[in-house]
Amino acid sequence: MLQQIKRKLDDMRTIKTLAEAAERHANAAGEREPGPEHFLLAAFDLPDGLARRAFARLGVDPAGIQQAIAAQHGAALASTGADPALLADAAPLPPAKGPYRAKGSMQGVMQQLAAWPRATPTEPLTGAHVLAVIACSAQGTAARTLRALGLDGERVGAAARAEIAGYRAV
């Protein structure tokens, strides 16, 4: 029981780290609220390295994700008739004050992370869990970004689950 409490506290710290990193990524892109694409970037920042290893397993360098996200945002603007060059002028925003806010699409991501079936009561939340949850979405900027990188959600999810399984075995 004590181990389960410790794991939940560790998970809360991981979520805090993810949320803060996602907000930094969103603010750097001139966005006030982070969405799944920013949590995707934040998963690669986690010290466990499992999201990076999942991408390596797929032969993809995660360094291209930020540019792919920007391209998806530009394409979304262009589809409405707006000039994608408007994004080039987006100045980084300072961190928000007050309670944490994220895009509405993050609610589903957080619920899926909370409901993730853990193999053991002590299995920690990792970047691979975040990657697997975000990869299962067929819509949104994160899903379009993965497709732009030549990845489908099923393959990304499988690579993430393989990293989680390997992490458990250690």
TrEMBL record:
Residues 1-75 form the Clp R domain. Coiled coil: none annotated. Pfam families: Clp_N. Keywords: Repeat. It comes from the Bacteria. Belongs to the ClpA/ClpB family. This is Peptidase.
